[in-house]
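Researcher: Here's the sequence for the chain we discussed earlier.
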Amino acid sequence: MATQVAARRRFSFLRITIALQTLTIFLQAVSAGLLLTSSYGETLHSAGARVMYGASMLYLLAAVLAWKPGGGSPRPVWHASGFLVLASVQVVLGIAHIPSVHLPLGVLMFGLSLLALARR
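Model: Thanks. This is the structure I predict for it:
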């Protein structure tokens, strides 16, 4: 019984971190629009990038915590690692001002994050 409660708690923490990551990626799209139309958009987009990257790291941590103690499938860890790699590439592309790859990658990340959320 205690094992089921612990597994459910880890599962919900993993789901919450995926939802947080999805929300931060969506907010990055909103702040990208503000970047084009307002003077404070760049500040919001830059701060949002840090928050989104942190959410990706938190997702990886939650995936490891859900996998290791229970001995479940390592698949969520691989998914979270992939998101962290994509987030790293996204940050580099944003700093390098390469919107032709940065924007489509952001859309892809949002779609993949939604898919991960729907699967949990």
